[in-house]
Predict the structure.
Amino acid sequence: MRATSIPTETATTIGVEAPPPPAIEFVTITRQEHIALKSAANYWQTAHRKAVDRFKWRELRYQRILRELKANGAKSNAALQAELVLAKGQVRDLQSRVFASKGERRKHCEGRSQTASCRRPRGQQHGSSGHGRTLQTQLPARHEDATLDKTQCPKCGLAFNNLVDTEDSQVLEIEVKAYRRVIHRHRYSASCQCGCVDGTVCAPPPARLIGRGKFGVSVWTSVLLDKFLYGRPSQRLLQDLADHGLNMSAGTLAGGLQAIAPLFKPLDKALQLKLRSEPYWHADETRWAVFVNVQGKVGHRWYLWVFHSSSVVHYVIDQTRAADVIVAELAAVNQGVISCDRYSGYKRFARLNPGVVLAFCWAHVRRDFLVLANSYPQSAEWALQWVDMIGQLYHLNGLRLNTSMDSPERAVTQHDLVQALQQMATRCAFEVANHELFPPAAKVLESMTLHWSGLTVFVNSAWVDMDNNTAERDIRGPVVGRKNFYGSGSEGSAELAATMYGTLATMKLWGLNARTWLAQYLQACADNGNRPPDDITAFLPWQMSAKRLADMRACCLQ
């Protein structure tokens, strides 16, 4: 088929009508061509529709992926922000542990009353009446006479009259000096002829704490007190002695302590037996360096344990922090109460001895909230509310303990204490169930919930303390010594340190003068031929008479 048309110019010239425009021009095609065009049209329409559908599908897929990426990004950003908050909190916690003061006083927060955190200044308050000077008349007096150089009138030259009375004043002084005891042992010869005495007879030599040693009991008393009660390093002690004119070498000091250590073993055993016989103990432990190499042990970190009962303070040095130390210390103990922290070793001992109850420390729980407040400022207000509630528990328990056992006031204070604990438990359970709680805060509450039964032992047993501060205070002396002389150089030295810490702390518990007691005990060892006394009951406070306790509490005046 072919369509024909006449050129415009030609048609106009010969007077023929112009052809119609292309839009209304009819074209004749064959059926085959029509089918081919129709098929092609359908094909491209279908392809276009598929392309449009594919574009819509890809657009929807793109939008879905974009939403997922945004959601994942927001979730990841939230997780990273949470990790950043936790990391910053840990950094603040570590910085406070290393650089901040070691107290547990709360920091002032915005929105809290400033007066609530203000404390009464320490020491004598300005304007309050004092108690006056203490004359200390128990000290020996050395009388001195003070006279005028010229006892006459400066104008006329007549002499003054010497009055009988004097105007007295006193000044307290201390005199520490080294001296030599020169013992002249008199010799005797027999004047009889019976022959029972051959040659000469001499007075016996003085008793010595260390065989053939040149230092007396007073020196070794000062050495032991200076090192284990006052926490002074040995080199400073030797320098102090040298400044007083007494020279002692470091080797002599170390050898002397090594010779003295066995003298306290029977006493240490007696303290341990007394400890096991009592029903209530405070326990704690701290690191202690022992600079010896032990096969199978890495490093020099040992542990110093303390166990405090009503009559005894006993220390144990051990290589480990395992529960076996508690098992050995409280051997054959079937029942009792231990005030302690939440260390797993005490829990294992309680599982091995069902009759033993653990009373956990509220001071440690309070410390958890203070650490949370200092490490995460956004939780400070919430944490300090819990600190206030714990303080209220201490207040209510103090009111209860200040009342007599069978008085009506005791029942009222007991009810108030129980009600406060119930309210605290209810709030704790509610907030633990709140899954939106800040994770570190939730962790503190979960720990308190886990140890709740041990934290409430004091409620029905008023003789049980709310905290373990007693053992914490017992650890303070060794920690001072650890900071000053870093620990012990040998295993024997470490054992002597534990023995002396326990002995001196027990004497302090009974109110005895440490110097008086130690001087008499060492003298008894010297009199017994460098051995412990055959009967040490005279040196055990719980077996002393009232008069002997009074003598031991007096100052050791020389």
About this structure: The chain has a mean pLDDT of 88.
